[in-house]
Amino acid sequence: MTRSLDLGPAPPGPRDAAGRRRPATPLWARSLGYWLYQYKRTWRGSITTSFLYPVLYLSAIGVGLGSLVNHHAHTVDSVKYIDFLAPGLMAATAMQIGGNEAMYPVMGAIKWMKTYFAMLATPLGVVDVLLGHLVWIALRLTTVTAIYLAIMALFGTVHSPFALLAVPAGVLTGMAFAAPIAAFSATQVNDAGFSALYRFGMIPLFLFSGTFFPLTQLAGWLQIVAEATPLYHGVALCRALTLGHLDAGPDLAHAAYLLVLTGVGFALARRSFRRRLVT
Amino acid sequence: MVEARGLVKRFGDFVAVDTIDFAIARGESYGLLGPNGAGKTSTMRMIACMSPVSDGRLRVLGLDPATDGATIRSRIGLVPQEDTLDLELTVLDNLMVYGRYFDLPKKLIRQRADALLEFSQLSDRAHDKVEPLSGGMKRRLTIARALVSEPELLILDEPTTGLDPQARHLLWDRLYRLKQQGVTLVITTHYMDEAEQLCDRLAVMDRGRVAAEDTPAALIARYSTREVVELRFGPDGNAAAAVVLDGLVERLEILPDRLLLYSDDGDATLEEVHSRGCRPESSLVRRSTLEDVFLRLTGRSLVE
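Predict the joint structure of the above. Result:
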C-alpha cells in the first residue's frame, strides 16, 4: 500500500468537469456552498416543520379561534379572521427563521465549530463569509415563505395574484431581522444574549405587531411604538399583498423600511464580523 | 517563499511580535520554537494572511498580504492550532466543502480526497462523522484538508499539541513525507523534539523576538556543550550542591527540580561530582538538546 501523495495534475485556473475553462465562482457563493452542504443533512426535518407549523397555527387559531371571532365581530379589518391572521403569521414566521438563523449558527461558526475561521484560511474574506451566510438565510426564508403561501392558498386565504409578491416580502422581513441580529451575534461571547433577544424582542413583536389583532386595539401611544417596529411593516406588507388591498404609498414605505433595516444591519454586521474575525 | 523584515504585531499596547526578521526558502522546513506567548501563533497568522501586519514588511510567495491576501491564501495551506473541522459533516464532506472554497471542481476534489485520506490513514473513516474521531485523527484530517488545494506552502501551528506520543509519531512521519516531496513547511512548536525532527532551520522565539536562528545542530553547537549532566538532590538539596560544585564546569543551571552541568565530557564531569563528595539522588548524562539552547538564550525552560 503506497502512502506517498499523488494528487494528480493541478488544472491552471477553474475548469468544469469536462476540463473546459469556466469563470471563477464568486467568493461569497463558495461560502454559501458550505451552508448548502450542511443543509443536506437536515433538510427533511426542516421542510417538514415548514409545512407543519402553518397547518397547525392556521387550524388552531385561524379556523378554531377565528370562528369565535367571526361570530362576535363578524370581520376584522373588514375581512375574515383567518384572512387577517395568515399573512401576519407568515411575516412573523419569517422573522423567527431569519432571527434564529442569525443567532446560534453565527455564534457556532465563530466559537464552537469555527467554520468562519476555516473559510478565512482560504481565499474567502470576511465580507464573503458574511454575505454567503446571509444569502443562505435568504434562501431558507424563500422556501419557508413559499411553503407558507402554499398552505395559505389551501386554507383559502390568498385573495390576489399579488400574493406571489408576499414571498419576497416575507424574505425581506426575515432579512431585516437576520442582518442586524447577525451583527449582534458576532459581538456576543456566549448565548445568554439570545434568550434576552427572544424574551424582550422577538416574542413581544410576535404578539403585538398586528399579527393577531389590528393595532387599533392598542392604546394610542402603544400603537405608535408598535408601528415603529420592523415586524409591523412586514406584517402590513404581506397582508396587503395576500388580500390584494394595495396602497402604493404605505406599501412602498413598508418595503423601504425593511430594506433600510437590512442594509444598516449588513453594514453593522460587516463591522462586527471584522472586529471578531480579523485580529 | 516567505520574507519578513522588521515584522511587528501589536494588540493595543501589547506587542506580540517585536520587530523580527526571517526568510524561508522554497522546499525548506522552517520552525518557530518557543514557549506559549512567544509570538509564534501571531507570526503564523500574519504569514497565513489572516491577521494584518502592524508594522514592518512581510512578503509571502513574493506577494504582499495587505493587498494580495486572497491570492496568497489560495496558494497556501493552514493547519491552525485549534481544529476548525465541521464536526457534524463526514470526513469526506469536510474535504469536499473545503475544496469548494478554492473553487476546485468536485470531481478533482474527490480524486484528491481519496489520495489524501489514504495518506492520512483515514480511508476507512471517510463516511464517518468527524465528531467521534480521536484527536490524532482530527489533526491528520485537518492536515489532509489543508493539502486539498495542493498548497506550495503548508503552515502548521502546533500540529501535535495535546496528542499522545503514538499519534505524534504518526503525524511526524506524515509531515516528514511531505517535506521529502518538496512541500515547504512552516511549523510552530514548543516541543524541542518536534523541532529537531522536522525542521531544517529554526527561529528560537521568546517574548516576541527571535533570540537565535540556525539549523538545530548549529544552534546546539553554538549555544550549548556536547553533553549535559543532570543531577537531582531532592527538593532542598539542589542549591546547596550547586555551591559545592561551583567552578567544576563553565556553565551550571539551577532548575527547581535539578541541576544541569554543561560539559563536553559528561562521564568525566560526573566522576568529578562524585570525587567532590556529592551524592545526587539520581544522575543522567545526555546529549545537549534545543531545550538547553532555549534555556541558555532565555534563562527559562521551554515547557513549564
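The interface with chain B takes residues 1-8, 10-11, 14-17, 24-25, 27, 30-31, 33-34, 37-38, 41, 113-115, 117-125, 278-279 of chain A (CB under 8 Å).
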